[in-house]
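Let us work through a complete example step by step.
Step 1: write down the sequence.
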Amino acid sequence: MFGAADTAPQLIKIGQPKTIGPIDNDRVCVRNIESTLDDRGANEDIDFPRDKALHDIFQFIRILSIWLCGEAVGVDVSPLVYIVMGPLLFLVMLIPFTINGLGVREAFFIAFLGRFGVDADAAFATGFLFYAVTVAASIPGGAIMIWDSLRPALMRPREG
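Step 2: predict the structure and record it as tokens.
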């Protein structure tokens, strides 16, 4: 169920972010970027069991949120349906010609939950509510990123 390769745990490192200096466009090329990534990756130990456990926890939380959205709308199917649907949904949401999987996700909810006797309106509402919950959960992180990007500008001494 959670066996799909996911690099998110390797990308998420808890602690202070490393700052990147100003970019010199004359020196930037693919080889420099690749060598920098290779050098940095060689110094970091990858703890696969910990990363796998972190991945499984995140996926379980995402599936739990889909199940809770279904319960909120009144969809009465077994949690096993959501456990099967979750990883498939996450793959469907990766379709590159949509904006954040919008539309494709709802169609998937209708098609998948329809096989279990769920009304199309309830399935659509479940999918859209899951999208709304995902966006709402992302807002604090977006606010933090905006604040961190504005803070250096606010800290500069004023000229004048």
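Step 3: interpret the result. Confidence is low (pLDDT under 50) at residues 1-13.
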